[in-house]
Amino acid sequence: MAKQARAIQTRRTILEAAGAVFDEFGYESATIAEILSRAGVTKGALYFHFASKEELARGVLDAAITTEGVIPQESKLQEWVDVGMVLAHRLPQEPLLSAPIRLSADRRARELFGTSWAGWIDYLAEMLTVAKEQGELLPHVDPRQISMLFVSAWTGVEIVATAAVSDGDALEDRIAMLYDCFLPSIAVPGVLGRLDTAPDRGGRIWAAHKAQARAAADGDGQVVRG
C-alpha cells in the first residue's frame, strides 16, 4: 500500500510539473528536461508513468475535468454554478488546471490530442439535465446547448482575464458576472432569486470542502454545507 501511495504521489508530482511547464511555455516549447527539473524526479520515474510528452499532455488534459471541492447541494443549478466558481477560485493558483486551457487553445496541440472541452460539456450537461428534471430550468432550455455555450464563454473569459487587456478584475469577479448574465435566461424565477453567484462563492465552497476533509481525517463524519 505504501508503494502504491508513493507511485500515485509521484505521478501527481509529474503532472503538476508538466502543467506548470505547459502553462508557461506552451506545448511545442515545453521540454521533458524542464518538466524533470520542476518535478525533481528521475527520467526513469517519469517514463514509468508517461511514455512521451504527448502522454503527459493527455494526462494534464484528463486532470482538467475535476469537481474537487464542489459540495453537493439540494439545488442542482447551484451546484452547477459552484463548479465554475470553485474552478475560478482554484485555477489562478494551480497550473495543472490552467494548462489545459492553454493546450486546448493551441491548434497544433488540439490536432495531437484533442481538448478538455468535450468532457466539461458532457459533465455540465448532465448536471443541467438533473436541474431541469427538478424544475429549476425554464422549459425551453436545452442542457447540452447551454453547456456548450457556457464552456465556450467560461474559457473565453479566462483567456481574456489573463491577457494584457485585463482591467484588473479577478477571474472570480468575471466568472460571477458571466453567471449573472447567463442564469436569467435559463433559471425559473423562484430558483434564480436563491442562487449565490457572489465572487467569493468559490472560495467559501473550497474552504468548506477543506474543513470537511479535515473533519473526515479526524474521524468526524459531519457534512459541511456551502
TrEMBL record:
Coiled coil regions in record: none
Organism of origin: Streptomyces blastmyceticus
Protein keywords: DNA-binding, Transcription, Transcription regulation
Alphabetical list of InterPro entries matching this protein: ArpA-like, DNA-bd_HTH_TetR-type_CS, Homeodomain-like_sf, HTH-type_TetR-like_transc_reg, HTH_TetR, Tet_transcr_reg_TetR-rel_C_sf
DNA-binding residues: 31-50
Domain HTH tetR-type: 8-68
Keyword Membrane: no
The protein, known as: ScbR family autoregulator-binding transcription factor
Keyword Transcription: yes
Signal sequence bounds: none
